[in-house]
From TrEMBL:
InterPro entries: RNaseH_sf, Transposase-MT_Hybrid, Transposase_1. This is Histone-lysine N-methyltransferase SETMAR. Transmembrane segments: none annotated. Pfam families: Transposase_1 (PF01359). GO terms for molecular function: nucleic acid binding.
Length: 118
């Protein structure tokens, strides 16, 4: 799961289909969708500049991704590999999400995805 947020909330949620792996091309397609979602939901953000925080996973550091980021002038906020510091999402998203989903049972994966999107 990839999600993108700002201070106002989640801008984009991308759930990788079961059995698929993330690679640089898929990550760049997520960035394309994020750029479009920002244009629709937070148009001023594109004018002020986008700063991403992501780790050094291969799809994030791949040449294809770096070229995409340079093309659109998006900045990367460093997050050292294996850092013990929590990303804001670890605290502000995953904790509340875990509490919300705790005890729920889903009949299908689509039911779970629907609840995540809500």
């Amino acid at each position: 799961m990839h999600f993108c947020q700002d201070a106002k909330g989640v801008i984009l949620l991308d759930i990788l289909p079961q059995g698929q792996c993330i690679n640089a091309a898929r990550y760049c397609s997520i960035l394309d969708r994020l750029k479009e979602a920002i244009r629709r939901k937070r148009p001023g953000l594109l004018k002020r500049g986008v700063v991403l925080q992501h780790d050094n996973a291969t799809p994030h550091s791949a040449n294809l991704t770096q070229q995409w980021l340079q093309r659109y002038g998006w900045e990367i906020l460093p997050h050292p590999a294996h850092s013990p510091d929590l990303a804001p999402s670890d605290f502000h998203l995953f904790g509340p999400l875990k509490r919300h989903l705790g005890g729920m049972a889903f009949e299908t994966e689509d039911d779970l995805i629907s609840e995540l999107r809500n």
